[in-house]
Each structure stands twice: as structure tokens, then as C-alpha cells.
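quick q for whoever's on today - can somebody do inverse folding on this one?? i tried earlier but teh output was garbage lol. C-alpha cells:
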């Protein structure tokens, strides 16, 4: 008999039936739960609240069964209900990536206002469900079952592909400055492994900031960091304030000879030639050249 697998063969998204009932949508409940999960892991704290930032496209990658426009619409609906709060704490003005946090007080008020429509008839989540909602989504494992030996083996989620991530960053690094690729890859891999907060998204943001710095500060090519240097110092920060363009006048500094100011020159008269001699000179010239 051939090998068989359980239906769950990848890390599942989770949802509480009561939350889905309150929101009248299992998809919205899954999205809210997933945002809660990322908030539990976030180190982005502003004004005393944890925040997560992502694009609609980024959220869509986590909910691939929904259309991207549907994801955008559901996020907007959760915001309109007051359950999601959005802001923009990006360090560069052109970055429109939204930051999100859950208003847990608003969620409590919503559950209390539902009344008999809630699963337990009181407008509240069951205590066990509330505790479950407060827990981050655990790291799940894929279970492989082999009928031959009736034993199961756990298989961890695939590790991040550091090389693939690196190639994406490398592709966008300035041309002409891609020196030391292997050294840069080792530096990136070491940086990724050194701390849980050193994510691929963070690396992308850091590169985006550096490229913006090059643009707004008008950094000349010879002063752009070699790739091996930048990848060895990914956490470096750069001034993101705009700077007026500077013209390099050195290319115009060619030596120019100063012209003579003839207005300041005194005319010199050769007193050695008198009128009679000049007349004789022209007559002699005419005779020699047949101009008589």
C-alpha cells in the first residue's frame, strides 16, 4: 500500500469559531489572528504599543486563497470596525508601508455588544477561547506517516534559504559596486543567524534606506560602499534627509590665460621712421612690383 499523509502537510493558520462568528467571516478572523501572532513577536514599539508593518502584497502572500483586492478590503473593514489601528512610522517619506496594531479594548467591546448572536449567548468569548486567542500561533510540524512501520516522524519547517534571500538583495545592489560576492554572502548568512530580529524583511528595508541615501545625498559612484562592505555592516544607519544637489566644479577648473587689457596699454610710436622715408619706402615697393 502506498504512503499516505494527513491533510495538514504545512503550518496551518488558526481561527476560533467564536471570533469568526463575531466578525461574520472566517477569513477576517484568520487575518486578525495572524496579525495578533506577528504582534506577539514584534519588537517595534511606538507610543507604548507593539506594531507590525507590511504591504497588502505581503499580507496576500500569507492568505493566498484570497484575491489581493479582497485582502485589502478585509483589512480596511477591520480598520473601519476599529479593531485594527494603522499608522506610518517609516523613516523615509516615500515608503507608504502601513503599520498595524490591534485595539484589544475595541475587540472586547465588540464581543460584549454582540449579545445572543455570540456562540455562548453572552456576547463574550469563552474563557478557554480568550486564552487561546492570547497565545501566538505555535511552530507546527509536518507529520509523515508510513504504513509499513506504523510510526510517525516529525519534520520541521524548512529553514530560510539564506542564499536565495541574498541573491535578491544582490540583484538590487548598485552596479559597478558588486565586489566580493562570496564574502558578502558569508556576512549576510552570519548576520541572519546572529539574532532572531535579523530578518529578510529587515535586510530589504536596510538596503532600501541605503539606496535612498545614495540618491538624496548625491553620493558619487566612487564613494558608494562595495557590496562586501555593506553586507558586513547591514545594521548601519544613514541620513535620510534630502540634501541640495551639488555641482562638481572641478571638471570646469581648466587653466585659462588672462587676456591683455589693451585699454591700459600705451601706444608706442617708432620715432625712427619719418614721413619722407615712409614715402620713399612705398615708391620703392611699387617700382619693384610693377604697380606704377
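ok took a stab at it. sequence:
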Amino acid at each position: 500500500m502506498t504512503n499516505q499523509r494527513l491533510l495538514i502537510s504545512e503550518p496551518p493558520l488558526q481561527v476560533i469559531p467564536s471570533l469568526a462568528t463575531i466578525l461574520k467571516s472566517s477569513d477576517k478572523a484568520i487575518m486578525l489572528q495572524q496579525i495578533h501572532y506577528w504582534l506577539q513577536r514584534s519588537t517595534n514599539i511606538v507610543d507604548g504599543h507593539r506594531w507590525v508593518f507590511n504591504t497588502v502584497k505581503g499580507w496576500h502572500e500569507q492568505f493566498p486563497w484570497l484575491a489581493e483586492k479582497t485582502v485589502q478590503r478585509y483589512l480596511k473593514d477591520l480598520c473601519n470596525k476599529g479593531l485594527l489601528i494603522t499608522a506610518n512610522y517609516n523613516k523615509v517619506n516615500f515608503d507608504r508601508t502601513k503599520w498595524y496594531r490591534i485595539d484589544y479594548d475595541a475587540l472586547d467591546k465588540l464581543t460584549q455588544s454582540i449579545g445572543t448572536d455570540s456562540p455562548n449567548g453572552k456576547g463574550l468569548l469563552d474563557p478557554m477561547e480568550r486564552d487561546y486567542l492570547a497565545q501566538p500561533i505555535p511552530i507546527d510540524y509536518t507529520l509523515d506517516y508510513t504504513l509499513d512501520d506504523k510510526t510517525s516522524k516529525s519534520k520541521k519547517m524548512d529553514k530560510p534559504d539564506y542564499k536565495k534571500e541574498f541573491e535578491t538583495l544582490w540583484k538590487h545592489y548598485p552596479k559597478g559596486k558588486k565586489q566580493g560576492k562570496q564574502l558578502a554572502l558569508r556576512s549576510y548568512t552570519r548576520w541572519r543567524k546572529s539574532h532572531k530580529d535579523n530578518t529578510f524583511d529587515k535586510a530589504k528595508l536596510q538596503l532600501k534606506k541605503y539606496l535612498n541615501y545614495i540618491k538624496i545625498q548625491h553620493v558619487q559612484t566612487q564613494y558608494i560602499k562595495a557590496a562586501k562592505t555593506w553586507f558586513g555592516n547591514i545594521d548601519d544607519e544613514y541620513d535620510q534627509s534630502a540634501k541640495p544637489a551639488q555641482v562638481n566644479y572641478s571638471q570646469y577648473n581648466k587653466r585659462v590665460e588672462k587676456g591683455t587689457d589693451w585699454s591700459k596699454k600705451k601706444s608706442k610710436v617708432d620715432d625712427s621712421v619719418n614721413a619722407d622715408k615712409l614715402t620713399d619706402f612705398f615708391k620703392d615697393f611699387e617700382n619693384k612690383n610693377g604697380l606704377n
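fwiw The chain has a mean pLDDT of 76. also The longest strand covers residues 49-54. so keep that in mind when u check it
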